[in-house]
Amino acid sequence: MQHLAETLNFSSRKVVAAWASLPFPALQGCPLPAALSAHQQDVPWQLLSSCPEQRCSSCFAQSVVLRGFCKGRKKPPSLLPACESTEQTLHNYLHTVYPGAFSTAYVLEQPCSTLPPYPQFFSRLVSRQGFLLDQPPSYSSAAVESIPVLAALQSSPVLQSLLSGLYKDLRKLNTRRCASFFAAGVEQDDFEEALQELRSLSECYETGFEADESEDEGDSD
Fold this sequence. Notes:
Layout: H1 2-8, E1 17-21, H2 32-37, E2 46-47, E3 61-67, H3 86-97, E4 102-108, E5 112-113, E6 146-147, E7 149-155, H4 158-171, H5 179-183, H6 188-203, H7 208-220
Parallel strand pairs: 3-4
Antiparallel strand pairs: 1-2, 1-7, 3-7, 5-6
Helix pairs in contact: 4-6
């Protein structure tokens, strides 16, 4: 994980955000191009890291993995250009949603198993194979046995708010009341240096909009 984060980061960035779609929202029997074309304006995954939701679709680099989607499905007409492989289909989608970002895409046919003791928190609109149904089954649905999953690690501007918020919280800390903390061997100078490094790291994730906000906050201080 550390090596992957290092691969996705450049320009002094070090942190990545995690996203996932569990299960990946696709109708039973729906080919991948059609499933992705349904999410041209809103990506089909949720932020897992403790950051505020990003206000725009942007990232610097990302690695995305889709599991549980059969590579042999037919390709109907869609908004995405024709591709020779499911990996290329996913890559083209990422390029459309995040133009200019460095992206890697992988598609694995093996789905994620959800057999016991995996918790059954799924809707009745999810089939045993983890795909969406048009309507709930009339009978008592069986437990979901597997699901397709889309997961991503992103070096993204959304991390700026997380890192800057952490810096502001630590800056408010009265170190004089933390005798046990410094008794463990941390020097005050080391703490201040780490604090400034955290602030510099948060600035590495700024885009033009976040940079303007940071300048306003600096002026108010």
